[in-house]
Specification:
This protein is about 30% helix and about 20% strand. It starts with a strand and ends in an 8-residue tail after the last helix. It has a six-stranded antiparallel sheet with strand order 4-3-13-12-9-10, with no helix packed on it. A five-stranded mixed sheet has the order 6-5-7-8-11, with no helix packed on it. The chain is of the alpha+beta class and about 450 residues long.
C-alpha cells in the first residue's frame, strides 16, 4: 500500500511515502514464512489468489483481510468457518496496532508496517518508453515513473488534453511485471453512459434488454495485466461505488450476476479535470479519489516545457508514416513553435507536423508548409493571460454590412469549432462540455461546417 505526499512535477515536494506491510507467520504450518505486500487491501486465505496464502486446513478460502486507511489498520474476518482472533477474542473487525499478533484458523500471524519514504530526483534520462523530454518538468515525471512502474501501485495521471496521459499508462505497463499481460484501455468520456457499467464489469444473459448472451467486462479482460481508465472524471456518480468495490475487493460482479469473480488487475486512471474540485462539488466520491490517487502524476502542458519542442519534433518525424525525407524544421518554424501556446499540447504538435510533411519540398518543414491559422498566430501571451483568439479574415467592405457580419460569424464559428473539436480528439461530448453548450447545438454546427467528429 502506498500514498504520495504531494503531486510530482512542476515543483513541490519530491518525496513519495510508500506504505508497505509485512505479514509473518509465527506458528502453525507456515511458521517462519513472511509476505511483503504493497496492495491497498491484503487478503489472507487458502485460495491461491490471496496475498497471504496459507495451507492450514482450518483456514477458509477467503478468511480475512487487512485494510490500511486514514483511520488506521483494520482486520476484518470474511465470514470464515473457524474465525479470526486477537488473543482469545474472536473478532469480526478490529483495528491493529503495529506488530500485533492475530490468529486465523490455527495459524498465528503478526502484522508490521514497513513504510518507506523515497526521495525522487529528476531522471538522468530524456525519455521513458515513448515519452520524450529533456526539461526538468518531464525528467521529474520520468523520475517518479521509474520508481512506480515496477510496483503494483494504483496511479492517477492528470493533465490537459493532449499531454500524453495514455502514453504514460502504456509506459508504466511496459516497465511493470505485468508487461506480458493485457493492457486494456477504456475511455469513460467516449462511451455512452448507459453502456459504461456493462463495458467495465460485464453482464449476464438477460440482465437487460438486448443482453442476448453473457459477456465479460474489461476488468475481466484485463486479468493478469493492466486496465487504463481514461477520463475517469466522466464516470457517472452512480457507478463510482461499484468501481470503488472493485479496487478494494479485487473482484468484479457482472450486471445481473449474483456472485463476484476475483480479478488480478492493476488500475491506472487519467483525467483532465481537477478531481479535488469535483469532490468538493459532490460530483466525484472522495473515497474513490483517494483509492485512485495512491500516486498522482501531473503531466505539464507543452507551454511549460518549450525546451522539449525541438526533441519532440525530431521524435515525431522519426515515427511519422511517409516522412518523405523530412528530417527537421526551419529555424523560423522552431521560433514559431516555441512561441505558440499549443492549446492541444503534444497531440496538436503531432497533428501539425504530420500535416506539414506532404507540403514540404525539402528536408525541413518551412513556414509555407504550416496551416494558415498557425502562421497567423501571435506569440504566446504570459502564462497568466488567456490564450489568443483565432485569427480571422479582415471584413469584406465590398458587400453590405449585414452580409459582411454574417461572413465573419461564419469564419469565427468554423475557426472556433475546428480548434475545439481537435483539442478534444473529435469527441463531441467532451467538446460540448468544454464549450458549455448543448450537445445538439454543437452537433448541428459541426454538420453545418462539415467538420469531422466522433458521434458519441
Amino acid at each position: 500500500m502506498a500514498e504520495i505526499t504531494s503531486t510530482i512535477a512542476g515543483g513541490g515536494s519530491r518525496q513519495i511515502h510508500i506504505r508497505r506491510a509485512r505479514i509473518v507467520a509465527v506458528n502453525g504450518e507456515a511458521a517462519g514464512k513472511s509476505w511483503q505486500v504493497d496492495r491497498d487491501v491484503i487478503r489472507i486465505g487458502a485460495r491461491a489468489d490471496n496475498d497471504v496464502v496459507l495451507t492450514d486446513t482450518t483456514v477458509s478460502r477467503q478468511h480475512a483481510e487487512i485494510t490500511r486507511g486514514s483511520q488506521g489498520t483494520l482486520l476484518r474476518d470474511l465470514n470464515s468457518t473457524n474465525g479470526s482472533f486477537v488473543g482469545p477474542v474472536r473478532v469480526r473487525e478490529v483495528y491493529l496496532a503495529p506488530d500485533t499478533r492475530f490468529r486465523v484458523g490455527q495459524t498465528e500471524l503478526v502484522y508490521s508496517p514497513q513504510d518507506e519514504v523515497i526521495e525522487v530526483a529528476p531522471s538522468l534520462h530524456d525519455r521513458f518508453e515513448a515519452l520524450v523530454g529533456r526539461s526538468i518538468a518531464m525528467r521529474e515525471v520520468f523520475g517518479i515513473l521509474e520508481r512506480v512502474a515496477p510496483t503494483e501501485l494504483t496511479v492517477l495521471v492528470t493533465g490537459e488534453t493532449g499531454t500524453g496521459k495514455e502514453l504514460v499508462s502504456r509506459a508504466i505497463h511496459a516497465r511493470s511485471a505485468r508487461s506480458n499481460g493485457p493492457l486494456i484501455v477504456f475511455d469513460a468520456g467516449a462511451a455512452p453512459e448507459s453502456l459504461v457499467e456493462s463495458e467495465l464489469f460485464g453482464h449476464e444473459r438477460g440482465a437487460f434488454t438486448g443482453a442476448v448472451q453473457s459477456r465479460e467486462g474489461l476488468f475481466e479482460a484485463a486479468h493478469g495485466g493492466t486496465i487504463f481508465i481514461d477520463e475517469i472524471g466522466e464516470l457517472p456518480l452512480e457507478l463510482q461505488p461499484k468501481l470503488l468495490r472493485v479496487l478494494e475487493q479485487r473482484e468484479v460482479r457482472r450486471v445481473g450476476a449474483t456472485r463476484a469473480k476475483p480479478i488480478d488487475v492493476r488500475v491506472i486512471a487519467a483525467t483532465n479535470r481537477d478531481l479535488r474540485a469535483e469532490v468538493a462539488a459532490g460530483r466525484f466520491r472522495e473515497d474513490l479519489y483517494y483509492r485512485l490517487a495512491v500516486v498522482e502524476v501531473r503531466l505539464p502542458p507543452l507551454r511549460e516545457r518549450r525546451e522539449d519542442i525541438a526533441a519532440l519534433v525530431d521524435h515525431l518525424l522519426q515515427r511519422a508514416q511517409g516522412a518523405r525525407g523530412v528530417r527537421g524544421i526551419d529555424p523560423q518554424v522552431r521560433a514559431l513553435f516555441e512561441s505558440y501556446r499549443w492549446p492541444g499540447n503534444v497531440r496538436e504538435l503531432n497533428n501539425v507536423v504530420e500535416r506539414a510533411i506532404p507540403f514540404s519540398d525539402g528536408p525541413t518543414i518551412t513556414l509555407a508548409a504550416l496551416p494558415t491559422a498557425l502562421r497567423a498566430a501571435s506569440p504566446a501571451a504570459p502564462p497568466t493571460a488567456p490564450a489568443a483568439a483565432p485569427a480571422l479574415a479582415a471584413p469584406n467592405t465590398d458587400v453590405p454590412f449585414k452580409d459582411a457580419k454574417e461572413l465573419l460569424i461564419e469564419d469565427f464559428e468554423r475557426a472556433y469549432l475546428v480548434d475545439l473539436i481537435e483539442r478534444h480528439d473529435q469527441n463531441v461530448s467532451r467538446a460540448a462540455r468544454a464549450a458549455d453548450m448543448d450537445r445538439k447545438s454543437i452537433t448541428r454546427l459541426l454538420k453545418k461546417h462539415n467538420i469531422r467528429y466522433r458521434d458519441v
